[in-house]
């Protein structure tokens, strides 16, 4: 009966999000779903096993810290949407720092494409009860060749249409999973069998650096910054804030419900969520695997497109988008064979942390230059502090082992 309700809830949420004419016409929903999907896409799959392995019972608390940092960075980017975008094409130190940040973002996209597809390969192999770094790299490479080839041949517009369905499927899976976890915890409490497993929950310097390396699990809100051709500034500001609130609530509830399922010695297996939720309902591992494969493919297509567009823009259209995709393909293939999925998570976190460092520095410069800005000095100090915190993530973030 529980499996039936899980599938029913997941299916209903998926069908509504994917085919609702009301949502299709809602500009606010469209502006919200892009950052929300980016934040929830891959982080939701890996955050529980990675935090369980590194910080144990403190997972919810540490997740809260990551979410607060992300919300602070989101504040800097929202400030840039309102105050920097109108002067973005002028000349000055803020414009120079922002231009460098775009170069960094292109590199971060290269890494995130590799991250998404390595995660996809891991879940695909796990679905068949198999684990092999060699085969994971082969599968990742084949998908990269497919996406890069399509991009160079016909462009990625056709593949990008898959994104809305993958996002809806992922959010449907999350709804079904949260429902199942809530019932599971209620049942354990009602029978008096709810208890926490024995875990090593001490946090040392190494664990702290691993935590810094997990910033990628709450990354994605910055996509609102580059949707100016689709949505007005104030709508992007409000919907980015809403996406961060919704994702923060989901992450905290999810980890709170998952804590009872934490296991000792998980070894930072990024696909461990499938085995963790197996006691809850038989269908959950299958549902998660299907959603993971779909969401990671769509995310990789979106970031490949974003990286190609950034490369083309950075070089001022001196090379065609076809060669930009070729560059993305070459770099991501190199990263695939030189890293593993846990390492690439930390690399992606550090790359985006550097981008956030520069975006926050841009906000600090703009705040300093805007003489009429209310509480100008406080904003300069705040954005400078956020920039420094992101720089620490870039310098000291480590992969899980």
Automatic annotation (TrEMBL):
Keywords: Membrane, Transmembrane, Transmembrane helix. Coiled coil: none annotated. The chain crosses the membrane at residues 6-24, 31-51, 57-79, 99-128, 134-153, 165-186, 206-221, 242-264, 276-299, 320-338, 344-368, 380-398. This is Uncharacterized protein. The lineage of its organism: Bacteria, Pseudomonadati, Pseudomonadota, Gammaproteobacteria, Oceanospirillales.
């Amino acid at each position: 009966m529980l499996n039936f309700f899980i599938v029913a809830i997941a299916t209903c949420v998926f069908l509504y999000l994917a085919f609702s004419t009301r949502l299709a016409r809602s500009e606010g929903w469209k502006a919200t779903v892009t950052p929300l999907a980016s934040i929830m896409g891959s982080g939701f799959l890996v955050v529980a096993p990675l935090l369980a392995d590194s910080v144990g019972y403190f997972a919810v608390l540490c997740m809260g810290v990551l979410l607060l940092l992300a919300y602070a960075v989101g504040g800097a980017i929202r400030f840039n949407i309102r105050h920097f975008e109108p002067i973005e094409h002028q000349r000055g130190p803020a414009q120079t720092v922002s231009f460098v940040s775009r170069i960094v973002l292109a590199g971060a996209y290269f890494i995130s494409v590799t991250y998404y597809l390595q995660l996809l390969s891991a879940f695909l192999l796990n679905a068949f009860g198999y684990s092999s770094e060699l085969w994971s790299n082969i599968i990742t490479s084949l998908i990269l060749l497919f996406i890069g080839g399509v991009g160079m041949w016909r462009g990625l517009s056709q593949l990008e249409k898959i994104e809305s369905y993958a996002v809806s499927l992922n959010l449907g899976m999350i709804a079904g999973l949260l429902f199942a976890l809530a019932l599971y915890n209620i049942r354990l409490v009602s029978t008096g069998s709810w208890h926490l497993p024995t875990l090593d929950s001490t946090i040392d310097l190494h664990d702290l650096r691993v935590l810094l390396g997990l910033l990628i699990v709450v990354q994605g809100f910055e996509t609102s910054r580059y949707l100016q051709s689709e949505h007005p500034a104030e709508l992007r500001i409000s919907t980015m804030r809403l996406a961060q609130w919704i994702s923060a609530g989901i992450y905290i509830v999810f980890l709170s419900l998952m804590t009872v399922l934490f296991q000792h010695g998980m070894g930072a297996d990024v696909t461990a969520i499938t085995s963790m939720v197996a006691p809850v309902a038989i269908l959950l591992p299958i549902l998660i695997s299907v959603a993971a494969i779909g969401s990671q493919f769509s995310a990789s297509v979106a970031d490949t497109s974003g990286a190609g567009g950034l490369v083309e823009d950075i070089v001022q259209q001196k090379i065609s988008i076809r060669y930009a995709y070729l560059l993305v393909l070459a770099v991501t293939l190199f990263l695939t064979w030189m890293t593993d999925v846990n390492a690439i998570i930390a690399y992606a976190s550090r790359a985006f942390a550097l981008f956030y460092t520069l975006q926050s520095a841009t906000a600090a410069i703009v705040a300093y230059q805007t003489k009429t800005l209310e509480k100008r000095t406080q904003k300069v100090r705040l954005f400078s502090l956020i920039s420094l915190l992101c720089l620490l993530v870039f310098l000291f973030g480590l992969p899980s082992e």
